[in-house]
Structure formats: structure tokens, C-alpha cells
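Task 17 of the worksheet. Students: predict the tertiary structure of the chain below and write it out as C-alpha cells. Keep your answer in the requested format; marks are given for formatting as well as content.
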Amino acid sequence: MPLATGRSYLAIPGPSVSPDRVLNAMHRTAPNIYEGEIIDVTRTVVADLKRVALTGQNVAIYIANGHGAWEAAICNMFSRGDRALLAATGRFGFGWAETARKMGIEVDILDFGKSGPADPARIAEALRADTDHEIRAVLVTHVDTASSARNDIAAIRAAIDSAGHPALLAVDAIASLGCDELRMDEWGIDVIIGASQKGLMIPPGLGFIWFSDKALAVSQQSGLVTPYWDWKPRAVGAEFWQYFGGTAPTHHLYGLREALTMILDEEGLENTWDRHRRLANAIWAAFDAWGKGTGIALNIPDPSARGWSVTAATIPNGGAGALRKWLETEAGVTLGIGLGMAQPTEPSYADFLRVAHMGHVNAHMTLGVLATMEAGMQALGIPHGPGALEAAAAAILR
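Model answer:
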């Protein structure tokens, strides 16, 4: 008899778990959208979105998912025929490039594989070769949601500067915002892309772009910008409706207000980062123990290059797929598929999975996932090393 009855746990890299407080804040009648409370709430949300990205510059809110935010960023940074340099460290790097190409941008891809971060020296080399400064922006994911590789954004900024190149630095932080350390102004980031359904703990539906004054100036000449995606009125609109290109996403704003209060004013942003770091270390410790002599392995060998919000791993011989199925049907836990690691038609597709530990997640949730994973390995006869749960508990305490 399955043990899945009860509250299920969606441990995938978005949508993440939404706190009851956030859901309760959203569970209300729609407000007056012309005056009053919602305008005041939005004003505080905008200010706190800047706090969560550690910037004093600009932010725009879109009724969209992360793919919509990708498109908005491209619209505002480029004209058709412009060039971009993209550092790919997993499936979502290539996804951003595909979107840009479909919009008429020439994208030079530096492919750093699926098991490690981008090399800033190679980025600097590519920029030095662009003597006519045709490259308008360097695009990079902070944490690729598929591979779980984390890039050193400050080092990439330094590489751009060392090359003496004027390109914007645009960062996809959809999987990292509110989970991994991210400092827009200090690290010299020009554009950050985020979404509501991961570290910010809100249901899918909102996309965000933080952009520097330099990026704002560049957007004045963009030939791709359209009325809806234009970030200028969303950041400095004279009328309330302009912040959203029309009707405000009222209930998401109430949920976001609650989530930002939890992150910034109650837990504290740096404490939020540290919680994710410690939970990530527990996941990694368990996989290290399971992997002794078995072939189970983390996708990113170097701990310093792993994101704190999601962990990609392999359990060979179809073990990952079998374990995912067992967990969902027998234990009420859903893990993420191994996105981009192999094609669904390939036998090795079932060798990969992802464990998310982003947003509203604590020690008992993370340790519970690991314990049910170990139970599933036992039930399925998947070879695994001993001591994983003890190692995870010790890692959380360190």
C-alpha cells in the first residue's frame, strides 16, 4: 500500500513551495485598481524588489514567466541584426540563445558543457577579438536550472572590463534569485532576469527585470522594443497601469508583498542565502555517500560551482527515472526530471534527476526528501553507499 496520502511535496526547481502566508495573502477579493491600497502595496513591492537584488537602479514587473522575461530583456537591449555573446552552462543558456535568434539577434555561443561554470578568460578573449564592439551584451545564467552549474558573475564582469569592451552584462537569475548570493550593483550587472515561482515563493505568473541606468540608455536606441515589453514605463510610469502594461496582477502583488517581507524583514536576505547554502550542502553530502562505488554522482564535481537552489545528479542504469516514479506514487514526493542531460528518446534519459531546495524549504523538508529517496533506493534495489542521512544531518549543522 502506498504511503503517498497526505500533503505532497513538489521538490522540483519551480514552481517551488508557496508558504501558506503567501497563499492566504492572495486569497482575497480583487481590489480597486485605480486608487488606494494596491497602489501603495505596489510602491513597497518595487522598493523591496530592488532590495532583494541589491540595487538602487531600476526594476520592471511583467505578467509573464521566465521565458517572457527573456524576451523582454532581448527587446530592450537589441535591434534586429545585433550581436550577443552567450556563455552556456546548461540547457537554459541555449534556451535563451534560441529565443534571441528567433528575434533576429546573432548569438555567438561559448559552450562550457553541462558539468561546470563558464571560464571568464574565454569570455574576455572573445570580447577582445570583437575589435569593432559589435557585441552588444554578454548573456549568462547565474545558476542554470538544468545543470545546476553556478557562474562567477563578479569574475565575468571583471573579464568584460579587462577586455575594455562596452557590452552590457545580462544575467538570468531565475533559479538563483533569493537563494544564492547575488549583488547587482556591487558586481556590475546591467540586467538581471527573475521570475516569481522559485526563490521568491510565489506561484508562476510574474517575470522581473532589474536594469542599470546604462542599460536604460542603451534601450533608448533598441529597434525591437514593443509597447508591452518596453521596460521604461514599467520602471518610471507616470500612471499606475503603466507599471504592468495594463491591468495589474493584483493577487500576485499581494502574495509578493508577503514573500518579500518574509525574506527581507523577517529572515534577512543573507540568512536566506545561508539557509539555502546549508540545505544544498546536505543534499550534496547525501549524494557523495550514496555514490561511493556505485556510479551515483552529482552533475557538478566542484562544490564552489554548484547552485544553492537546485542539484542535478545521476543515478545510472535508469535508477533516476525509477526512483522518481517510486517517490511520486509511493511517497508523495516529486523530483525534477534531468532536463537537457539526454534526449527523452535516449535510454540514458532515465539516468538523471534534479532535487530542488529553493524558496520555502527547511531542514525537515530537505532531510525528509533524502530519507524517502533512500527508502526508494532500498525498495527498488538501487545500489547506494551507506551513511547518506548521517552525512546530510552533519552537513546541515556545519
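Marker's comment: Residues 269-290 form the longest helix (22 residues). The chain is about 40% helix and 15% strand.
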